[in-house]
Amino acid sequence: MHCRIVGAPVQDGAGRMGCEMGPSALRTAGLVAALVELGHEVTDLGAVSATPTPVRAHSNPAVKSLPEISAWTAAIADAAYAASADAMPIFLGGDHSISAGTVSGVARRAAETGRPLFVLWLDAHPDFHTLDTTVTGHLHGVPLAYASGQPGFEPYFPPLAAAVEPERICTLGLRSVDAAERAALTRAGVTVHDMRAIDEHGIAPLLRAFLERVAAVNGMLHVSLDVDFLDPSIAPAVGTTVPGGATVREAHLAMEMLSDSGLVTSLDLVELNPFLDERGRTATLMVDLTASLMGRRIMDRPTRSY
């Protein structure tokens, strides 16, 4: 497969600094080498850049960095659209606000190809706030709502060329959901599997059912992997830690199932804050999970010493 690496060093959407170093940490942890070792052709396109332009002040006084995130969204959407031409783009964040651009960009590509786009959101949070409902004002909490066409983003965010149908979104691993998001997710028809569902049923049947839906209509699948999908005991390098996340084996199983499906057409790796890491172990785990998604099997996995 031809993979295009796109860096999106955004930290304006998060509550603490450090995510802008995420793309460099993933590269340093050996992402490109792991993909090449698996037989993929890799082109590293470097980093997206954005210049903020004035945006009308929002009535919600909590909203932070609106001009910056609006500009990043437009620039990343264009980069995502370009990188998804006859290749699989892998977007290196940056906080999760980058997905407002990545998802909208690949949605535009999917619309042009005539195939439905599905989104698998691996995260402790659904990021389904709007500009009106966010309490913290940190805009890494809004990208999924924006990309699925929820109201309230115009004229502050770029107009959507194509929105993802909420019924084609699956959130997996949730364990921190605000009341406003809970109501919005239910109203929109998003598939929601929180950690209790994973505890009760296991991750495999929940993910398998979603992948069967994607395959049934020849869909394209965008996967957005947030570091805080993982339990902070194994992935501490994130500013939004929530106890009780996915284990190493649950995460690898999800990646291996995604690989087996052959459905994944684009990938986000987000919210890695190297400033909070321990000797690079979170970055290394994210690279290992990406390798599992891209074809590495247990029999191929090297032993690591720590």
Describe this structure in words.
The protein is globular. It is of the alpha/beta class and 306 residues long. It contains ten helices and eight strands.
Task: Looking at this protein, list some descriptive labels.
eight-stranded parallel sheet; Arginase, Chain A; 306 residues; alpha/beta
Break the fold down into its secondary structure elements and pairings.
Blueprint: E1 2-8, H1 22-28, H2 31-37, E2 41-47, H3 66-83, E3 88-93, H4 98-113, E4 117-122, H5 143-147, E5 169-174, H6 179-188, E6 191-194, H7 195-201, H8 203-216, E7 220-226, H9 248-261, E8 264-270, H10 281-293
Parallel strand pairs: 1-2, 1-3, 3-8, 4-5, 4-7, 5-6, 7-8
Helix pairs in contact: 3-4, 7-8, 8-9, 9-10
